[in-house]
Amino acid sequence: MRFVFLGPPGVGKGTQAENVSIQKNIPHVSSGNLLRVAIKSGSEIGIKAKVFIDKGLLVPDSLIVSMVVDEIGLSRYRSGFILDGFPRNLLQAEILDSTLDEQDKKIDKVFYFTASEEVIIERIAGRRICTSCDMHFHQLYKPPLKENICDKCGSNIFQRKDDNPETVLVRLKVYHEQTEDLIEYYKRNKKLIEINCNGSVSEINEKILSVFDSFVNGKMR
Ligand code: AMP
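^ thats the input. predicted complex w/ adenosine monophosphate below
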């Protein structure tokens, strides 16, 4: 099964993707994480991408598309994936569909996460990430067991540079200008399921799992 998690930055889709991935044993692919790994490795793509990420802008399609397409082509994603952060514009969505189509595969459902702008800004302010394994935390909703230390790998956790308030405003603007078009695209293709995220992590998780189970049990097409 192949799912896309779509929504504005900070809505909580990364946290939900991580949780559902573990609960349902479906690999999670985050385009943001792939880019952060490339930056950490010092690769040419990473160096180029960092300039855009730090400004809150989308990385050019020429850098990100092949990275994601190559990743989901790996054998570990043969039975499916949860794609988080990709696609982010119409061209990416069309390339994703045609790539899957060539392999006789398709995106089954797109979970579209919504929340008020106040909730989003508050969530981003408390967001922290592990320097080493990219595990996500939140000062209020998902604090690490030990202050500033990752529960999973023991490395330090930090605030992403692009999570500062000015960059967040740019990212929200970019989302409205470029990514929101995807809502109509997936609605037309009858794949969109809206999940309101003005609740706790576990409440939102329950909503996703209930939709997920109806889909898997064939009650939803
Ligand atoms: P995220 O971790 O999904 O919030 O992504 C962090 C940053 O990586 C974004 O603000 C973009 O600069 C870049 N990025 C991630 N995914 C994409 C994508 N599909 N297309 C273009 N840029 C992306």
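The chain has nine helices and eight strands.
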